[in-house]
Amino acid sequence: MQGIGRHWPVNGESPRSDLGMASSGSVCLPAHRGVEHRSTSPWSTSPPASAPPSRRQLEVMEERVAGAITNLHRQLLADRQEADMLVQQSLNRLEARLGTCEQAQGRCERRLAELAGVTRDLGDELQGRCTGEQLQGFSE
Fold first, then answer.
1. Which residues contact 24 (CB under 8 A, 6 or more apart)?
2. CA-to-CA distance for 32 and 35, rounded, in angstroms?
3. Model confidence pLDDT, tens digit, residues 9-42
4. What does the buried/exposed string (b/e) look like for 59-95 if buried means 16 or more CB atoms within 10 Å of the residue's CB?
5. pLDDT band (50, 70, 90) for residue 45
6. Four-CA torsion 78, 80, 86, 88, nearest 10 degrees
7. Distance CA 68, CA 75 (A)
């Protein structure tokens, strides 16, 4: 395991100072008299919380935010397309129902006109019978 400034012995290796790059890609500082200046732990590779983020960290965060924005944009576009599709389907169903209602209205209007004619004819017939009976009553 590599820490900042030290390489701890593994499998019989001897301890040595490491001035190269750490596994995270940051520059390691040499150890001075066994005291770490950047961290409280020899195994920690991140700077303390009070230190400003490095350029690479900012780039990584920027890439993550850009990726999140891109994903949100794609999701928004997909949601809009789905909403448009649902609106279109609802409109098609509504138009089909309206067409069915218009056909039913035409049938109902024809039936109502037919019933009105039958009612008028029955009224005329009833009035004729009443008038005929009254006339027969006077003639007797």
1. 45, 46
2. 6
3. 555 555 554 444 444 444 555 555 555 455 555 5
4. eeeeeeeeeeeeeeeeeeeeeeeeeeeeeeeeeeeee
5. low
6. -120
7. 10
Query: Rounded CA gap, 135 and 78, in Å?
Result: 84
Which residues lie across from 27 on neighbouring strands? 21
Nearest-5° Cα angle at 95, 90 to 100: 125
Both tokens of 48, joined, read: 């303390």
Rounded CA-CA distance 42/114 in Å is: 100
Which tokens is 72 given? 């949100």
Q: What does pTM read for this prediction?
A: 0.43
CB atoms < 10 A from the CB of 104, how many?
10
Q: What is the DSSP string of 27-82?
A: BPPPPBTTB-SS-SSTT--SPPTTSPPPHHHHHHHHHHHHHHHHHHHHHHHHHHHH
